[in-house]
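so my prof wants the structure for this chain in the C-alpha cells format not the other one, which i didnt know existed until like an hour ago. anyway here's the sequence
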Amino acid sequence: MMNSRAIVNTALLAALAAVSGSAFAHRPWLLPSTTLVEEAQYVTVDAAVTEQLFYIDHVALKIDGLVILGPDGQPRSPENVSNGKLRTAFDVNVAQPGTYRFTIANENAMASWKEGGEVKRWRGPVADVDKQVPKNAEDLKVMTTVMRMETFVSSQKPSALPGKPVGKGIEFEPVTNPTDLHAGEPARWRFLIDGKPAANLPFSLVPGGVRYRGTIGELRYTTDAKGEANFALPAAGQYWLSTAWPAATPPAAEGKGGPAARGPQEAPSGRRLTYSATFEVLPQ
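here's what i got, hopefully its the right format
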C-alpha cells in the first residue's frame, strides 16, 4: 500500500496540474518507452513529476499504488524497479498480445478548521477523516480528491482495454484504442464520472516537447451529452491528457489558452475529481 503522505502528494500534484495553465506547473505522468510493441518483449516505463512535460527535471513519482492489467484482465507485476531522485523506472513483460493498462488511483482528504483562534489543517486518507477531524469544529471545510492516472501499451496488436469501470471518480473508456492513434485520423473517446457519462466535461491535450517549443501548445475539447468527444490530432508525438471536475468556468476555444482560464487556483470545499493519462500519436 502507498503510504498516506505519498498518496496526498500524488493526488495534490494531479489536481494542481489539472487546473494550472502555467508552463511550469508540476505534472505527474507515466510514460512507456513505446505504446505499440511489434514483437513480444519488455517495455520500460518512466514515472515522474516534472515542470516541462516528459523532460525529467523535478522529482520521481512513487508507484506503490500502481496496478497493471494485461489483455486477459489479470494483474502484472513491474520488474527491475529503480527508484531515483528524479524519476522511477520499471520494466513490464508484454509477451501476451493485446492492450495493457497501467493505473495509479487513490482518494484522499484535506480539512481545515478553527480551534482556539488558530487555523488547523489535516491531510490524509478519506477513511481517517472521522478519527482525525473534529465533526463540530468551527469553520470546518473538508475536500476529498479522487485521482486517477494512466497509460497504455499494446503488444503486437491493440485489443479491448482490460478492466471494468469502478464507478468512482473520472474514468476513461475510449471508443478508439489509445494505442491506435495516428496523426490526422479521427478518434473517439468517452469519459465517465462515478460510472455515468461525463457530459460537457472539458479536457485538454498537451504535446510533449514544451521545453523546445517555448509554448504549452494545449488543445482543448469538451465531451457531448454522451460523455464522448471526436477529434483528430494534427501531429505525431507523445501527449498528456488532463481533466478535472468540477470545472469552474467553461473552457476557451479549442487549441487556445491554458487550463488556468477554467477556474480559481484554490480548491473549493467539497469533492474534486482529476484524471490524467499519457499516450502516443503515430505518423500516418
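also thought this was worth mentioning. The chain has one domain: 4-282.
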